[in-house]
Fold these 4 entries.
Entry 1:
Amino acid sequence: MGSEDAPDLQNPVATESSPISSDLTNTPGWSGTLVYQAGGCAYIQMMGMLMPPVFDASNNEGNYTVKFRARSQDGSDCYVVVAGYGAYDGVTETVGSEWSDHSVLMSGGSAATMFYFLSIGNVLIDDIFVDDGGVSVPSPLCYRIYEYFI
């Protein structure tokens, strides 16, 4: 199943905008590009994407926060872009060689909200959580996908 130092590049979880098997997730509907297993987390290769399922973020005036942990897989500084579809442009988070917590405020949520993580570098990502201020978004958005990587 790979490790943080040596992700399982022989068995991709998601290749080209492909769905991630619902056997690996608590919530069906995850998809991605260039996503692999890496021990207890997901590895997103350079310019790869990880997309959680569509969810309702219309409460709290469409505002929600995406929280996650990330680090560079190869030790160099890289970036994770957290972006929504539509009017929201996204935020670029710097990711270094050590695990760090990130929190990105998003706006423009609707009854069918979609967002994605774009990797600019080789990134390990874990513990994805969506918070709409306690109004209604199920959290954590996904459980088993990352439990499966452990």
Entry 2:
Amino acid sequence: MKMLGLAAVSALALMMAVPGPASAAQVEPAPPADDVAAQIASDPEMRYVSVAEAEAVYGFDAHAENVSEPVSTEPVITPLVSWWGCDWHGQADYPHVTNNEASVHGYWVKDGGDCPATGTVTVELQALGCSQFGCTWITQETDRAPDVKPGSGTGRWATPHKACANNNSTGWRGRVDTALKDFYDPFGWEDGPAKDLNCSPA
């Protein structure tokens, strides 16, 4: 009996001495993209760079974000006018420099179907900024054109402008949000093409 008890105590001591299996390392989830963008934009060491430099030095893909961002996850609801059969998109042209200001044109395009006659176009002009945390597009100016018909041209597009501080090569792009009149809007922002300009934002 005593030997049995001794054996049990010895076994217990051995179990306590042997380390258990290592617990799996806790992996911190990646912060949301908006948080990273805000971190980059507020970094005192952030600087505006060209698309070429961002890709070569920081491994940034200037085209990775060129996807529409849905503004709603709610089920599609029949709007005030028949929405099926209406096909449209927002579009930005290539950024350019005029009178020492960077600018971009944004407008909406009717691709076909039964659509409202007008829509409100909101355009953001963005410059490419990078820091130790990575790179992101930073909005410089916003312009809005209410109740405009589809297509490009004066009176149909919104055109944000931003003064140049110097002629350092910097990546620029526009992005467009279109809200058709009395119409359900499932799309959100649509990114335009990126282009390096000899203009760093003031």
Entry 3:
Amino acid sequence: MGWATAVDEQGIKASSSPLLAARAAAPHCQLTQSRKPYRHGGDLTIQADAAMVCDQEGKGNFTASLRQYQGLGIWRTKDVQGYRNRHDRSFPVTLLFDCSRLTTSGWIYRSNIGNATLRNSNGYWGDHNVFSQTATIHCA
């Protein structure tokens, strides 16, 4: 005897499925960024792109930065962009830094996704400290 027949013979009102309504899956996001920072066109602007794209809408926090290596393990932040408590499913940013022609040697740059989270009624997704490859960029 099948489920529907058993329910009908007992006179029980039920849903059309023997399984309880399944809870929606927790959100999942993907982080993308430039492989490494680059000079934008022919000007002196160094650029890196980063984004968090999710399969569901929710309240998102996303922060990315462009950093310059100073030596001795020290990275100086040159630009920070992001979103705080924004309700969406896509969080793109463009990081920019204008370097000087007075610099004759190249500097090493990288981008960093520092914080990436999405929360909604189905759950939570998060990641942090995702670095791009480094790039030596000459501005002179």
Entry 4:
Amino acid sequence: MAHLRSTTLLLAAISMLAGCVMFERPPAALVCDPALVGRWIPLAGSPQDKVPLGRDDYADVDATCHVRLRDTERRDEPGFDALGFEIDGERYIALGFDELEGLFATGKTAPPTPKGIPADAVTLLKYRIRDDTLQIAMLDTVAIMQRVQQGTLKARETDASTYLFEGEPEQLRELLRRHPDLFDAFDGSDKTLRMRRAKDGASS
């Protein structure tokens, strides 16, 4: 059976594949979205099937938005806090270094903050919930880096593969308002994860 670790790696791909895009600080105060609370299971036929998911694997989100990833083939339960914010009806989850370590669930002390990156820096996921279906879109890192290199988008290159959007929270919020295309599009993107809310706590 496939591991839920595959889901973890796909979520964390924003910091591992084709470079990394971070924000200097959270663009807004981070809170728990009650709409995320519950049990979420893979949506049959959704694009993330390209990264195999075990049929009995799922994610539990508690009332504080702490996520536990349940894998029938693992004894431990990787966990992280899925806190976020909303801007003009668009909802985001902010993942700092502690949260990314929780996703990887290595059981080791988190590595030092990369050189040139503030300790409070976060990367973002954009999500929406409709008809009990959760869609999660990741930052389009390749497109962002190309735009930065072309001079059409401003970010600081901290090393060969890491870009940092800098500014005060209000400036970062304005960036998100002006550039919704920083993220993969919902519906039809093979990078968009989709899960459905389980009924009555069922995992299948």
